[in-house]
Amino acid sequence: MRLMICAIDIFVGDAVGNHCLGIARCAQRSGWEVRLYARNFDIGVADIRPISALFDEIAPEDILLVSYSIVDPQLDRLLALPNRKACYFHGVTDPALLREFEPVTAEYCEQAIAQLPKLVDFDLVVANSAYIAGGLAPYMDLGAIEVIPPVFADLPAFAVECAPRHENGRFNMLALGRVVPHKRIEDSIRVLACAVTDGLDATLSIVGTAPNHEYTKSLLKLSRDLDVLARVDFTGMIDDADMLSSYDKASILLSMSRHEGFCIPALEAMYRGIPAVVRAGHAAAEVVGDTGLVADVDATPDRIAESILSLRRGEQWRELQRRARARAEGILNACNDERWSTLLNTIGQRA
């Protein structure tokens, strides 16, 4: 019996791709033979095969795990396979958040939402957060959905011991992740501008790929218009060592995203003792809990900046750092090898 993992895309550095590779490592440590399949993937980085090969290679006794985050044109064919099947559901981004700068992706998300009722045909559905699981309530019993965070203890931010934290110099806000419209990087820039106006000597590091040229241009213009361009650093894609360095230099993790299925950067920051500032209304608030700042959905940048300054000046800052690390460790324990091994064995035993 083998575990066959498939997704539309499996790229190193992308959240869904990293997660598929993480499940593969975890399953292999538990003794499973694993194969990975995708329509688009890194050639030569891992042993990933074209999705077309799955239908030729899968045997009746194999378990199929489908990673779902965008419309899958092969979904009906996958569901028709006689195998025991599980779906790991990352959630689907609200198309309204993408239409201005990414209309094609918005259409794919529309089509994905129309496919969601079909997920009930899997033997088991696993969601990456309780928030994302809740989005499936119209189609299936929420009590039957497993929730396992999309992270693993062997990821670089968790596998390498944290550097001692020093609060010297400027107050650095870190926005880490893809520079795309629904992440609302423009709001992070506005928070920085408001904090500087309020007297905080702050900088903003924007770390991640910037695939949308027009959106990136709009962010540069906004930074210039708000007179904070010299305080904003667009680093682009970086390697693991530089990512860890970015965390070690950060005072807070700032995510103004309007949609997160989980928010791995917040967890990584928390693990390294860095409080996270996120918006309510999606799974990032579930990750952060009471160990950082969860701003109201409609909170303005000046109010968020005011709250950050209030936290920074208060006596609870050190306590927040300690609690952030403790909460991160608890979340990691909820998705360890034992949990995944138990889950995979459960799928294998289902008729």
TL;DR?
40% of the residues lie in helices and 19% in strands.
Overview of the molecule:
- By secondary structure, the protein is α/β, with parallel strands linked by helices.
- The chain is built from 14 helices and 13 strands.
- It has helices at residues 15-29, 51-57, 75-79, 103-115, 130-134, 156-159, 185-197, 213-225, 240-249, 264-271, 283-288, 301-313, 317-333, 337-349; strands spanning 2-10, 33-41, 48-50, 63-68, 84-89, 124-127, 146-147, 171-176, 202-207, 232-236, 252-254, 276-279, 293-295.
- The longest helix is centred in the last third of the chain and has 17 residues, at 317-333.
What profile does the largest beta sheet have? 7 strands, parallel
- The radius of gyration over CA amounts to 21 Å
State the shape: globular
Number of helices: 14
What's the helix-strand series?
Answer: EHEEHEHEHEHEHEHEHEHEHEHEHHH
- What is the terminal-to-terminal distance? 14 Å
Got a strand count?
13
The neighbouring-strand order within the major sheet is 3-2-1-4-5-6-7
Strand content: 15-25%
**Mean pLDDT score:** 92
- Approximately how much helix is present in the residues? 40-55%
**What are the low-pLDDT stretches, counting only 5+ consecutive residues below 50?**
none
- Give the structural class: alpha/beta
| Oligomeric state of this protein | single chain
